[in-house]
Fold this sequence. Notes:
The chain is mainly β. 0% of the residues lie in helices and 50% in strands. The chain is built from no helices and eleven strands.
Amino acid sequence: QVQLVESGGGSVQPGGSLRLSCAASGFFVRSYVMCWYRQAPGKERELVARITSDGAGVGTNYADSVKDRFTISRDNGKNTVYLQMNSLKPEDTAVYYCSRGGIYWGQGTQVTVSS
């Protein structure tokens, strides 16, 4: 069955970096649109980044709030999707979720940015 397992979250100071990983099983990440969402306390879940399937060419989209700081990528050999997060800000603090097209979800990984 479809499974998504996130890892790589943690606590970091403002300006720091983290790389989140989403290991997939039960399907090939290259064949689907893959997304990273986040949800901060008291806020709605928001789309952070998405990457298209191989058949559609390698296309990526980002929320304005993370553009030029976050990078989504995919390693087809490892069947894993990544989110490289640089120049982190306190407002990036949230639980980050990996998703296959907004239908299948991982359990989430906490990212906390604080001095």
